[in-house]
Amino acid sequence: MSRRAIILAGGLGTRLRPYTVTLPKPLMPVGDRPILDIVLRQLRHHGFEHVTIATGHLAELIEAYCRNGESYGLRIDYFREEEPLGTVGALALIDGLRDEPFLVMNGDVLTDLDYAALLARHEASDAVATIATRVSTVEVSLGVLHFDAADDTRLADYSEKPTHRYESSMGVYCFSPKAIEYIEPGVRLDFPDHMLRLVAAGEVVRGWRSEDFWLDIGRPGDYEQAQEDYERLVDRLLPGGA
Hints:
The protein is an alpha/beta fold.
């Protein structure tokens, strides 16, 4: 069975403007190469053979850079959105996704996650969708006040710069063909709404808890952090060398 991945690369990248006015976010450089180049090399290393890139904003630049995938040892084709369909809506219109499970990921994720292991875990489970997750921490840089429920002016507790821990999506998913049945072709749909739709229908959605390195480069601060981390982690991010 061949392994297939869908890379979502059609977003406007508004949080990284003005850079993304002339360059699509997946082609933003990290170290000495675009983030999309890193992702494609990782997928090939993990045994994926067929990659479909869903494009939109500045699609022609991504298509010109990646071409047919021959230089990566991959088969690369494209689905170009004529109008925005959200983060998951395009999947209902891409050919061949109703045959076997596949990987879906954002085109701006920097991680050393084992994509093949994630897909194998999904295939062995009862889930129609699996979400790769990471525990994240957020520090509130203020004193947080907690008031009495019965008297909203009476102080009950005071937390100085509390830290909150939560599980967040890494932007990497596995879908079984049945998950596509819940996406209406041509209608905009985002991942959170799709996941909740599956859960409401009684379908099983599971998480893959990861401790791997991960950054979403969608914000300026994270993009700058990616530049710093890349040189330190290049051997992990590009297993087997460039």
